[in-house]
TrEMBL record:
Domain Phospholipase/carboxylesterase/thioesterase: 106-222
Protein's name according to its UniProt entry: Prolyl oligopeptidase family serine peptidase
PANTHER family tied to this protein: BLL1128 PROTEIN (PTHR43037:SF1), UNNAMED PRODUCT-RELATED (PTHR43037)
Alphabetized InterPro entries for the sequence: AB_hydrolase_fold, Plant_Biomass_Hydrol_Est, PLipase/COase/thioEstase
Signal peptide: 1-18
Keyword Chloroplast assigned: no
Entry-linked Pfam families: Abhydrolase_2
Lineage: Bacteria, Pseudomonadati, Bacteroidota, Flavobacteriia, Flavobacteriales
Amino acid sequence: MKLNIFIFFSLFVLTGCASQSSPELTNSKMEVTTTETLKYYLYYPENYKSSGDEKFPLLLFLHGGGESGGSLDAVKRNGPPKLLTGGKKFPFLILAPQNPNEKMWWNTRAVNQLLETVIAENKVDPNRIYLTGLSRGGGAAWEMAVQYPDKFAALAVVCGMAPLPYASWINKKLPIWVFHGDQDNSIPISESVNMVAKLREMGYRVQFTIYKGVGHNAWEKAYENETLYDWFMEQEKLN
């Protein structure tokens, strides 16, 4: 299934008066339209159809750069989608979109519109929306926590990276769990160490798991950790 996301921007150039000796600046306005096509997997728990009006939690999973573009099957290489292909069952819905741009960052606005559509069209508890991502998707998860601070009930980031100023914009009520390998040569562990330190300094609830002797593929241990999913299920957004 494909979902077309349309995003509209207005561009303004504001100016005052210019003297004859200076370059002239003119006021202008242009509406720019961009289109993003997101392919995705959506997993339903076993008892979803038989549960009547019961609403379920939903986990949004954002993959890494290696799964971007190409076949949607690539999303199954790592994280919860990989576990699902191995027969694991989860008590919540899992939304796993694919970044269609092999060499570009995630379009988090498009992802949010997809998420909103899935929530509206399914039996989803809006107070139990969980967010996780690995590598490039971990950076996108940090970004989504900043851009949509009131949406998520919990955040788990695996070997991700983000500017330290993000720490000031994340909802202080958001429970956070960070994972990283101490031998990561792609995204240095300092990215997580510094972010966790800044968040803790500001009073956030942050768990930090460091995998000794593990490189960039910290996601293998992180997503095979059953405690992570138990932790997600314990979290509910406080209104």
